[in-house]
Structure formats: structure tokens, C-alpha cells
From TrEMBL:
SUPFAM superfamilies: Ribose/Galactose isomerase RpiB/AlsB. NCBIfam families: PRK05571.1, rpiB, rpiB_lacA_lacB. One of its GO terms (biological process) is D-allose catabolic process. It comes from Paenibacillus durus (Paenibacillus azotofixans). This is Ribose 5-phosphate isomerase. One of its GO terms (molecular function) is ribose-5-phosphate isomerase activity. Belongs to the LacAB/RpiB family. The keyword Nucleotidyltransferase does not apply. PANTHER family: DNA DAMAGE-REPAIR_TOLERATION PROTEIN DRT102, RIBOSE-5-PHOSPHATE ISOMERASE B. InterPro entries: RpiB, RpiB_LacA_LacB, RpiB_LacA_LacB_sf.
Length: 156
């Protein structure tokens, strides 16, 4: 898959490890920055990366800041982006199987890289259970809410 990665200074080190993992597994990585541990503002990097997901320029996104929620807040403001903060592999599995997320957010200050890489592996390899009626119904309801409240890219 083609994966957008992005984050701020607090996620930089883990982002580099995630990039290496994804590349070793045969994925194509598009790095939206930041590119060092120099302090920066998270929205400057997450917004363009989330847009790339929404526009279908990449298949999914993995965003990393200090605690994870900042990336999810920004990403979920974009129509077509469904981001979850996952700090353990169980959450990562359900974020795909139940919720069909297309963006994974991780907190580099919260978990160590061994757990973070396990989260990425699980999230990347778990399919949405779209043939289970209750999960499809719930995901459809989230899509309906975004259709009511978020502008489609074509309307911007
Ligand atoms: O390093 P500073 O700027 O103090 O904190 C940045 C982090 O703190 C939280 O808001 C976010 O997780 C962000 O990545």
C-alpha cells in the first residue's frame, strides 16, 4: 500500500522507525514531515497528509505526535478521513475490523517503539468486517454524520 506518514517534533523519532518498518514490508511511504526534532506546529504536517488520504493520493495515513490525539483531531476534520488513536494492538485491531479507519494516530511520548511497531503491524494487516451487518451499519452511520457536517473536497 501507499502510506502517508506525518507528525511533529514529538513524533519524529518514532515516525522514522515506522517508515523503516513499512518500507521493509514492501509498502510505499510518502513522508509529509516534519523532518527533524526541531519544534514545529502539528497542523502544518497533519493537514496536508490527511488531505492526501482524503484525495486518494495514498491508501492510508499513519500520524505520530506526542500523545496521538492532536493528529486525530486534525485528521478527523477532513471529509473522508477516519482517524483513531491507538496505543495498544487490541485497539488497533478493532480500529480496522470494527471501524474501518484509514488513519492511525500514535503518541510517541506514550508508548515505546516495540509496542508502536506492533500496533502498526496489526493495523496494517487487519481487514474491516464489512460483511458483519452491525459493523457495516455503524460505519455507515459515521459516514452519514460526516456527510451532514463536513464539506466534501469538491465543495471547497
Ligand atoms: O513538545 P511540546 O511542543 O511541548 O508538545 C507537543 C506535543 O504535545 C501535545 O500537544 C501533542 O502531542 C504534541 O505532539
Amino acid at each position: 500500500m501507499k502510506i502517508a506518514v506525518a507528525g511533529d517534533h514529538a513524533g519524529f523519532s518514532l515516525k522514522e522507525e515506522v517508515k523503516a518498518l513499512l518500507t521493509s514490508q514492501g509498502h510505499e511511504v510518502v513522508d509529509f514531515g516534519t523532518h527533524s526534532e526541531e519544534a514545529c506546529d502539528l497542523p502544518d504536517y497533519i493537514y496536508p497528509a490527511a488531505l492526501a488520504v482524503a484525495e486518494g493520493k495514498v491508501d492510508r495515513g499513519i500520524f505520530i505526535d506526542g500523545v496521538g490525539y492532536g493528529s486525530a483531531m486534525i485528521a478527523n476534520k477532513i471529509y473522508g478521513v477516519y482517524a483513531a488513536v491507538c496505543q495498544d494492538p487490541f485497539c488497533a485491531e478493532l480500529a480496522r475490523s470494527h471501524s474501518n479507519t484509514n488513519v492511525l494516530c500514535i503518541g510517541g511520548k506514550i508508548i515505546g517503539s516495540a509496542i508502536a511497531l506492533e500496533i502498526v503491524k496489526v493495523w496494517m494487516t487487519t481487514d474491516h468486517l464489512g460483511d458483519v451487518e452491525k459493523y457495516k451499519r455503524r460505519v455507515d452511520k459515521v459516514v452519514e454524520i460526516s456527510e451532514k457536517h463536513l464539506k466534501k473536497l469538491s465543495e471547497l
